[in-house]
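Milestone 3.1: sequence recovery, worked example.
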């Protein structure tokens, strides 16, 4: 029986063929089927020539970079607070982790105009006498969208930073204290370089960036407020929201070839990111 050990993997490969390999192969096939029925790259040509597609690429890249940058800054800031000798550190740490348990659609609603900004507008206008600001301007709502994404995932960066800090030899900090370094100076000159050079932190940052590239719930929530629930090419159209509109808005006639081409392209980008993350994993393992 030991000679046929590979037979135990047959059910696994059969399951993967149904839930993974077949959908991927079908998507690739549909992306290459032209209007005449033959295999041709016309769908990819249409994708490259579609200004709405490039708009969604730019929005996704800007959204991912901005939210990841803010999440890293927010997470490191929280980690700095928790490394200080504060009372109730355990309570604060548990409190800071709460956003991780909130669904993204709830986060988008929480930071939306009816839930937050309308009340702030009322306070600023009627109490402080300030003029109203335009909540629906891209210069305002796009940073709010990115921050709400970072607000949810900043605690993950905090937890990773704390784990790296806890594994750092105490002698490093004792040497800094010996030379009279303050808490902030120790964090800037000692903790921050150690954390950012950690393969674990780099892995998490890459993972956070790729997760933000497929963001859907928060942009979809804001699409209803900026009246962009149907038209493509809006300032909230990430790649996921762009695909959603092509699939479910009747006016676009469900262009399955274009949808498949975009999906396959995203899949290839995900593979490249996965290869990068695997390289970081090997570095973490010391291989």
């Amino acid at each position: 029986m030991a000679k046929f050990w590979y037979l135990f993997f047959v059910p696994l490969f059969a399951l993967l063929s149904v839930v993974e390999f077949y959908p991927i192969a079908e998507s690739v096939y549909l992306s290459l089927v032209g209007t005449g029925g033959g295999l041709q790259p016309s769908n990819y040509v249409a994708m490259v020539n579609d200004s709405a597609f490039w708009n969604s690429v730019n929005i996704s890249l800007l959204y991912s970079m901005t939210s990841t940058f803010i999440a890293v800054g927010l997470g490191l800031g929280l980690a700095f607070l928790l490394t200080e000798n504060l009372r109730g550190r355990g309570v604060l740490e548990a409190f800071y982790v709460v956003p991780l348990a909130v669904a993204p659609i709830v986060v988008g609603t929480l930071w939306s105009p009816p839930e937050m900004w309308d009340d702030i507008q009322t306070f600023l206008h009627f109490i402080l006498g300030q003029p109203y600001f335009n909540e629906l301007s891209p210069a305002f709502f796009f940073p709010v969208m990115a921050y709400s994404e970072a607000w949810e995932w900043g605690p993950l960066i905090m937890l990773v930073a704390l784990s790296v800090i806890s594994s750092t030899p105490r002698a490093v900090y004792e040497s800094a204290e010996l030379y009279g370094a303050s808490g902030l100076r120790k964090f800037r000159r000692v903790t921050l370089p150690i954390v950012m050079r950690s393969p674990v932190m780099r892995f998490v940052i890459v993972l956070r960036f790729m997760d933000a590239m497929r963001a859907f719930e928060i942009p979809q929530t804001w699409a209803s407020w900026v009246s962009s629930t149907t038209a493509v090419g809006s300032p909230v159209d990430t790649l996921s929201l762009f695909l959603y509109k092509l699939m479910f808005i009747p006016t676009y006639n469900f262009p399955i070839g274009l949808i498949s081409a975009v999906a396959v392209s995203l899949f290839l980008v995900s593979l490249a990111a996965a290869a990068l993350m695997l390289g970081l994993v090997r570095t973490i393992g010391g291989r």
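The first helix runs from residue 10 to 32. The radius of gyration is 24 Å.
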